[in-house]
Design a protein that fits this description.
By secondary structure, the chain is α/β, with parallel strands linked by helices. Helices cover 35% and strands 24% of the residues. Bound molecules: 2-acetamido-2-deoxy-beta-D-glucopyranose (2 copies). One 2-acetamido-2-deoxy-beta-D-glucopyranose binds next to loops.
């Protein structure tokens, strides 16, 4: 008895100490364990010869449990074994037809589906990298990305033929050969590979093709606007692919899970957090071509989905669907994604049941990421003693008008106090490298911030304003720079402005994003200055914008300005435009709204404005 009392007191004291020093111990301990386990596993994979890349994992799993379902797509199941065989077949056919070899890169313009996966892993089997093109890209944007990637080979599908056809002459000029992997498309210099793929052997491709592959070799190129300029290809090497996939395992994904992915595979969330995470634990992915709010829960029930991936908009769309009686009948336990806003988050949990929302923050090309594993509503992540050691980041004072960090008298950045908003920067070190953009040293350098706290130090400039509260939760506040996010896509303002500049009656265009109540992100808006003596033509503006820009990038509102500030105060000017927004009572200029029915930009009056604000017009 006398021994037990002190023991009990010691245990209680220890428990109390843990509660004070580590308030989220219960929620955190398993995550810390999983993250450490992943890190050790990745280090072990890196030491193997050849290194255990995502592809080698797929091949291993295919050998051990060939029948396990990897992907369910439109009701059809594709097993690990089948993807292994299909990718060998496709890789062999592409190698014979295009002469691709180790170290090359091929561009993929493919919709979500098994063909995307076979092409991706088929290329990996040849020791090649795959550049994922956004399937919404058209004309100049498509060509720009293709040129960035440096690929001489474009693999596409019959479904996306119209986008390819538009740029065929330019592709020929660039010496890019187009291969259609399914179906028949006839045009000069275009090769249909369907029959050759079917006829090819599905035996493993020689390992010698990838004998030079290391964890530093590029695996995929993913296009991102980052926060500066036109889209550019972020390099995802094999190590990064593993690290990104381990985000999902950190959230609790395991081999018995069924992961539901409706996000596009050309973004890192669909491909790396979705497919790669599933391969790394041996789980199953239910993949959809596109997100559908009305089908969502039916799919979850039909396929026994346990985890799904989201972007903020997706949760909101689900909350906007009329209530049904069976909406809490499902097996979903975790949702992983980013951009969930506090109001939608609360409503979502209230309506659809006790789903653990695992919100994270991270840029495709960045060297920093956060994860909110304790489900604190609205937070993008939690800082704990481990993340503080592993990811050396700071929030620094930022001048929105100068669009640069504030520097002190010695020229160094100034950290903000807890609870204050600052620019997120993360130290670039060998352990937290910034791999940069393909063939674009100028823009890569633009993302580096130098001489931050002392001479010679280098940080990655995330371009995001964040805030850390007193409980060590970190919150996303806003994105700076010349891009904005709409419907889960980054829009580069310069790319949209370029489209306007090719119209003969437009002299200047200033593009920016504005917020709309009840919507995530910012919708596109442009201030337009006409050439002297030319007239406004709402129909031609509409035609032009629709022909050249994907729907999410089209400015929804225009304002006609007599003069556009292009001097040194331009940034200040843009800040003012953003603030003024699109309310006809406060904006003195003529305002226009994109009208898909009338196929024109039409004048926007107070009534139209109210319909937008009250959610009566679908944006
Ligand atoms: C395409 O190939 C031709 C002939 O080999 C060459 O002259 C030309 O410079 C190439 N074009 C590009 C953009 O590489
Ligand atoms: C889903 O789970 C139920 C019950 O556990 C099972 O009967 C059914 O076959 C499963 N469906 C699929 C598609 O795995």
């Amino acid at each position: 008895m006398s021994v037990l009392w002190p023991l009990a007191a010691a245990v209680l004291a220890a428990a109390a100490a843990v509660r004070v020093l580590w308030p989220y111990a219960w929620a955190e301990a398993p995550v810390v364990w999983r993250v450490l386990f992943s890190a050790v596993r990745i280090a072990w994979w890196a030491r193997r010869r050849p290194p255990t890349t995502m592809l080698e994992l797929l091949v291993q799993r295919a050998r051990r449990s060939p029948g396990k379902t990897l992907v369910v797509f439109e009701g059809r199941a594709l097993s690990y074994g089948q993807l292994d065989a299909d990718s060998s077949r496709l890789g062999r056919a592409v190698r014979a037809a295009a002469g691709l070899g180790p170290g090359d890169c091929a561009a993929l313009l493919l919709p979500n589906g098994p063909l995307f996966l076979a092409a991706w892993f088929g290329l990996a089997k040849l020791g090649c990298a795959a550049a994922f093109l956004n399937t919404n890209s058209r004309r100049q944007a498509l060509l720009h990305c293709l040129r960035c990637s440096g690929s001489r080979v474009l693999l596409t599908a019959a479904d996306l033929w119209s986008s390819v056809e538009e740029v065929l002459p330019a592709l020929r000029n660039d010496n890019v050969t187009v291969f259609v992997l399914d179906g028949e498309c006839t045009a000069e210099g275009v090769e249909n590979l369907k029959d050759k793929i079917q006829a090819a052997s599905d035996q493993p491709l020689p390992l010698s093709l990838r004998s030079a592959v290391t964890f530093q070799s590029p695996f995929v190129y993913i296009f991102t606007s980052g926060t500066t300029g036109l889209p550019k290809a972020a390099i995802i090497n094999h190590l990064r692919a593993h690290r990104m996939a381990s985000f999902m395992t950190g959230c609790g994904l395991c081999s018995s899970d069924v992961l539901y992915t409706t996000l596009p595979l050309y973004h890192s969330s669909g491909s790396l957090l979705g497919i790669c995470a599933a391969i790394s634990v041996g789980a199953t992915v239910v993949l959809r071509r596109k997100f559908s709010a009305s089908q969502f829960w039916d799919d979850c029930r039909k396929y026994n989905v346990t985890v799904f991936q989201y972007i903020g908009e997706l949760l909101r769309y689900l909350c906007n669907v009329p209530k049904r009686s069976n909406e809490q009948e499902h097996k979903v336990r975790i949702a992983v994604g980013n951009g969930a806003r506090a109001d939608v988050w609360k409503e979502f949990i209230n309506r659809f049941g006790n789903i653990h929302i695992c919100e994270f923050y991270g840029a495709t090309e960045g060297n920093i990421g956060f994860m909110n594993y304790v489900g604190k509503i609205g937070a993008a992540g939690r800082i704990n003693f481990i993340s503080k050691r592993l990811l050396p980041f700071h929030l620094v004072k930022y001048d929105a008008e100068l669009e640069a960090p504030v520097r002190d008298a010695n020229g160094y950045c100034i950290e903000v106090a807890t609870g204050e908003v600052g620019l997120l920067i993360a130290k670039i070190t060998p352990k937290t490298p910034f791999t940069g953009y393909v063939r674009n040293e100028v823009l890569t350098e633009k993302k580096r911030l130098r001489d931050v706290f002392c001479k010679g130090d280098v940080y990655f400039n995330s371009g995001d304003l964040m805030m850390v509260d007193h409980d060590n939760f970190i919150y996303f506040q806003d994105r700076i720079g010349d891009t904005f996010r709409w419907k889960g896509e980054n829009v580069a303002t310069i790319e949209v402005a370029d489209v306007f500049s090719t119209l003969d009656f437009v002299q200047n265009a200033c593009v920016y994003g504005v917020t709309v109540p009840g919507h995530e992100g910012r919708i596109g808006m442009a201030a337009i200055q006409l050439h002297p003596g030319k007239d406004w033509d709402g129909e031609r503006l509409y035609e032009h914008v629709v022909a050249h820009l994907p729907s999410y990038a089209r400015p929804r509102f225009l304002r006609q300005q007599r003069a556009i500030e292009t001097t040194g105060t331009f940034k200040y000017y843009k800040v003012t435009l953003v603030k003024e927004g699109f309310n006809p009572t406060t904006v003195q200029d003529s305002l226009f709204i994109l009208d898909d029915e009338k196929r024109a930009y039409v004048p926007m009056d107070q009534e139209a404005y109210q319909s937008v604000i009250n959610n009566l017009i679908r944006l």
